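retry 2 of 3: previous attempt timed out while embedding nicotinamide-adenine-dinucleotide. Reduced batch size to 1 and resubmitted. Inputs unchanged:
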Amino acid sequence: MKAVCWEGTNDIRVERVPDPAILNPRDAIVRVTSTAICGSDLHLMDGFIPTMKAGDILGHEFMGEIVDVGTGVTTLQKGDRVIVPFPIACGQCYFCTHDLWSCCDNSNPNAAIAEALYGFSPSGLFGYSHMMGGYAGGQAQYARVPFADVGPFKVPDHLTDEQVLFLTDIFPTGYMAAENCNITPGDIVAVWGCGPVGQFAIRSAFHLGAGRVIAIDTVPERLQMATQAGAETLDSMEDDVFECLKAMTGGLGPDACIDAVGMEAHGAHLDYWYDKVKTMAFMATDRASTLRQAIHCCRKGGTLSIPGVYGGFIDKVPMGAAFNKGLTLKMGQTHVHKYLPELLRLIESGRIDPSFVITHRAPIEDAPQLYKTFRDKQDGCVKVVLKPH
Ligand code: NAD
Ligand code: ZN
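retry 2 succeeded.
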């Protein structure tokens, strides 16, 4: 089959690889009909996530048709149309039974690597390094799905791939980011990053009762997309974000701040260059300008929600500001399984059509070029959907 493979930092290729096969009774094989490139994939492309190996198949946002099931899967049949949550979860451990699906204790066969770094291992993830399980991803013609009696979620035929594909990741991610803000009616929520995750966070914040959302980025078409959802906007490179937010919130600061940028933040300030030099010298793992700024800007007693991915150790995080202002911090890989049914209902009822975010559609062969287009925000690119067949 054809698959999008990571061959090294900034080296992504479409290659011929062996078809996946059932390895365990609870596996299923999905013939992928649609798959997307995520901002998290850019961290792999740019070499920010350790334990990638040449030849690894990328992709964690995918859906398709079940073409084979293991003997232990009774909930799915050949021909079922499913979306596949990006965290792999067993459905039975403490974490799965407490709706903490991305913390599943049984789905990472390489848990020891993650434990050395994090103390405890998160769940396995599709196409996201050996530290996260070494699973082949879904930017391919076929994918093996472990714990297929738990993860794949059947979707109704009257909804198109483009309407439901983002239930695998970015829609629940934006939603959980907003839910983590503890929004009370009328709250002002500031969102750093107007990529796909930021776009869903903005819409979810309004849905959960925010009175105003202030969206921060520097890419005009992304800010424009935020405006269409009713957000006010700031340019992270042009505006003095702290002073503007303070002025826009009657001197208090936003009630909640969402960091939908993560470990590859760009910035107009000195700390950006400090992070840049340190990460290039392998003395730091993440660039954290957004995280620092969001802590600085948040109102006293407010909430900081962090859907943006961080990987390792960060210095110059203003812990004193977070502590002395009494902030609440919430974060994590999304517990996709928890949100799927509720968000599918929102789509079915017509309240939201997630396909608004798609700007590029292409055959899988175009993936290497489109990774670059998406990373460099060229050609108005906000979200890429690939067709493997
Ligand atoms: P993206 O790269 O398309 O979007 C990031 C946006 O942040 C870009 O528009 C960029 O211009 C903007 N940005 C960069 N520096 C900024 C700054 N200093 N201030 C304001 N904006 C700035 O990616 P995406 O797909 O939207 O993903 C965003 C983040 O969410 C990534 O870190 C990704 O890994 C993460 N993510 C997390 C989960 C999860 O489960 N928590 C799931 C999906 C994605
Ligand atoms: Zn993703």
